[in-house]
Amino acid sequence: MSKFARFLRIISIALIAWGATFIPQKTFADEQEDCEMMAPDYYWDGATCISYQEECESSPGYYWDGATCYSEEEQCSMQGADYYWDGTQCVENEEEDTCEADYGPGWWYDDTSGQCLDENGCAVDEEYDDGVCHEPCSDGEEWNGASCESVCSDGEEWNGALGSCESVCSDGEEWDGTECVSVCDEANGEEWDGSACVCDTSNNYYGTTGSCEYCDVSSGNFTWNNGTCTPVCSGNNTNFEYNGQCIENKFQITTTASSKHFFFNISAAGEFYIDCGTGGNFNSTGNQVGYLNKNNTTDTFYMCLYQNAGTHIVKFGGKATEYNSDINTQNLSTGAAISFMRTNGGYTGGIASISGSLGQIFSTIGSGGTLATQPRFTETFLLASMNGPIPENLFSGISGSPVPYMFSSTFSGCSRLTGSIPENLFSGISGAPAQGMFSSTFYGCSGLTGSIPSGLFSGISGAPAESMF
């Protein structure tokens, strides 16, 4: 290289070095100006020159109109009232004018459903509640946020003619939360007469509302007179008279055909009437009907005597007031309210059949549960020769807690009894078992048929008692 050429090279390098040192650096404003000179929709972001259009359209659903970035929905609304955004695209609302003309401002045509919708998106036959379009509720209904429900309470229904709710129950009934029930105390003989509760005389209940009393007028044995149920002793009935007083026949025994006498024992205190029947002589008094005003609980022997052997009907009435409180384990029958098996030291088989209720004469006093208040029927019919079934209501009137030996051997040895054991025979008895209460009750009753009723002892519960069966 010549000296001149080398000189020129040195000068060039020096000039380049001087330019790099003294040429001024570009500012942000310079870069922005240079960027916008490329195109009006570009801008400098501090590092790169960026297109407004490219940045806008990089987001789905947006576009650049040369000055502003818009969403497709905004673009749609800008096209005029004849267009609307259906959620995915801009649709020309060809029926918009028709919907507004028919239904008013704010109504628009939905191409998807093909119907006019209001500003809430509800159709003509829909209502808007709580953010939901729904079919109108029927008369007597209201919207609960999810569905239509009745405006009426439980036990009511809507009466369209009255425009209000009314009870679903008939006249004389009320809603108990589950069903319609009578407003009257039907269990105690009341019925609805169309305007008020009254005693149900069709079923033999008489008296005043709230205190209806059963009086078996329809049987002909009783009459309701001045607020009192009175036995009738004339006509076709089984009651009997004593000193001009009509006595209700509560329990009756028919003797065997060979009977010339009939014996029984009563330990209970109370007033009792015994009709020995035609030709009968009570306790050698010469009277057919005997009256006992018994003020003690001593086991006492009584009899009906007859001149001629034959079939006789013995009737019992009255009411016990107290029972024997002793338990003689050597002779349990001495505590029985009444028994029919003993003569003077022996047994009698003189019973052919029985009917009625001993429990109506020898009833539970108060709530029972003690020997003095609960009757015992220990050995009452022991070895009796009676035929036929056991009366279902034989012990009606007896309730509450049992006492020891209450029904011990009551029918023991009654081999001629027939039929099945009445399911409700002991239905009034409830509570814990008592010693010997059902010991041998039906022992030797070989003529009874059927199985033991499932509810025979249903009221008894608790720990088993000694010899209870």
Would you mind describing this structure in some detail?
Helix content is 10%, strand content 28%. The chain is built from 5 helices and 33 strands. The strands form 14 sheets. It has a 5-stranded antiparallel β-sheet with strand order 29-27-31-25-33, with no helix packed on it. Mean pLDDT is 85; it is low at 343-347. The relative contact order is 0.05. The chain has 469 residues and is mostly beta strands. It is elongated and about 180 Å long.
Count of separate DSSP helical elements: 5
* Main sheet: strand order: 29-27-31-25-33
Q: What is the helix fraction of residues, given as a range?
A: 10-25%
Mean pLDDT: 85
The assigned structural class equals mainly beta
Q: What's the Cα radius of gyration?
A: 53 Å
DSSP E strands, number: 33
Principal-axis shape: elongated
**How much strand?**
25-35%
Which regions contain 5 or more consecutive residues with pLDDT less than 50? 343-347
Largest sheet: 5 strands, antiparallel
End-to-end distance, in Å? 145 Å
